[in-house]
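Retro notes
What went well: the complex prediction finally ran end to end.
Inputs used:
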Amino acid sequence: TQLLEQSPQFLSIQEGENLTVYCNSSSVFSSLQWYRQEPGEGPVLLVTVVTGGEVKKLKRLTFQFGDARKDSSLHITAAQTGDTGLYLCAGVGSGGSNYKLTFGKGTLLTVNP
Amino acid sequence: DSGVTQTPKHLITATGQRVTLRCSPRSGDLSVYWYQQSLDQGLQFLIQYYNGEERAKGNILERFSAQQFPDLHSELNLSSLELGDSALYFCASSVTTSGGFRNTQYFGPGTRLTVL
């Protein structure tokens, strides 16, 4: 069974601070996705990282895929209150199971004004 | 708005009862996925349908079943409900069933099921 561990589980910071959340697994995934989920809504895809060592930037968000494609990180620079939400990482299966998303339990981020 | 619709938004029922959750995928999407989200287990894949046929099963209980109709909408049936079935149930859709990362799944707003 492929498992994804996310840390920290909860994070409360002040507006303007930087933060990093982590997503780790003992399994290799063909790619890894990050989602943000707001209360009362479904997860929304932020980014997909595919290649080991890949770094992608989305405005103030920086996503990195580990060299061995087992772990990933999300770094937010100068957090804003609008960044508040549940951040989920999801590993994409390979081969015959490439439909399947395996989700971590998420990091609940609260950015205080 | 992802384009995926789910009804009802909230559902409150009693143990032992049976409920049906409905999902309409984005226009043009042939694949539908069902997920369960709970505080202790997180977001877990239940089952996938593609163009009316079951394609994959995840952690779906035998008391749960699903189907996809010719118009591509899908229903998730939950029976003999237990307290532990209380959770958010999400439907997602995608264009096809293969392609891995190229096949983005779009999630609906979910149905919150409370079993009393």
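What we learned: Chain A touches chain B at residues 30-31, 33, 40-45, 48, 50, 88, 92-94, 97-106 (CB under 8 Å).
What to try next: split runs per interface for comparison.
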